[in-house]
Predict the 3D structure of the following.
Amino acid sequence: MSGLRAPSNYTEEPPRHPSLIVNSQEPFNAEPPRSALIASYVTPVDLFYKRNHGPIPVLDDIERYRVSICGLVEKPLELSMADIRKLPKHIVTATLQCAGNRRTAMSKVKAVKGVGWDVSAIGNAIWGGPKLADVLELVGISKLTSVSPLGGKHVEFVSVDMCKEEKGGPYKGSIPLIQATNSEAEVLLAYEMNGEPLNRDHGYPLRVIVPGVIGARSVKWLSSINIIENECQGFFMQRDYKMFPPTVNWENIDWSTRRPQMDFPVQSVICSLEEENTVKPGKIVVHGYAASGGGRGIERVDVSFDGGKTWVEAIRYQKSGIPYVADDISSDKWAWVLFKAEADVSHTTEIVAKAVDISANVQPENVEVIWNLRGILNTSWHRVHIHVQHPDL
């Protein structure tokens, strides 16, 4: 048995926080208000964005649940949750971000296809479960292996989740074997989120967490792990989540010319203000988040209170009482950084944020230059408008 399949009846919806902004009902996709993201370094489970490609599976017979490890391995294996819980448990704080985060802003330039996310298709959580590198050793694949003894070069994750893009088949994705077998990459088979068992929205009973990589590769409701020669040929690896130039449209697109997107680029967003704000003259304090893929820390967040003419450097922080230093052992390398900046504002203006990671990657100034037909990876400078209302003299 490769894993417990979802029943045909999906009518039972999980309970959800009333403040979630629902972007689509079927499949269910929702994000919290942006202000909720900066309320805490670790995002509460009920306020963590919900991203689904099909109906949410019900896997309540945990005794029958199995994950198979198969493909190009000498000793295929099936693991129960009891087997998985016996393995050394690793904890990692990692931010997940949908590749479509901030898509609505990109669609204002020119229409794109996809769920209309605002700025909150992102969240930071503490994940618990065995490292994938430890699990793969059970089937004879050593740490830091790029090619398995039988010629496997990629690890494919197959979900219980069925979706129309796969013609009713399961959602799936893959990562290179060298990443999966690298303990430092901290890829997990996670059964805990923020110290509690995963809930249904987030992949109960078991999901993959691939830190530093777009959320699409952190497959939920895991059914099987396949060691394969070439990367996964599923829809969401080959015909979606790829970055094209602005010149490509639906008439001339050739999906085979681009690699599947993995790491997400450097990103920052102001969360304490909406897109349009009316305020009185005086001090304005802005808060937001910044994150970069691949474990690259945030070196700087620049905030402009005059539309990008002059800049101040924001204060960056993660955990209270512990100074954030990019690349330091005390900082969470896979997690976002929160920031704060303030200035006096006396007239109508635009407040802008841009982040710089430790590799000196910086967000592009304008969304037009990174526009793409699927509306992914909008990491342009984040801008909010301030209308200053002077009291009557």
In short: The first strand starts at residue 21 and ends at 24. The first helix runs from residue 34 to 37. Residues 68 and 78 are 4 Å apart (CA to CA). The two ends are 77 Å apart (CA to CA).
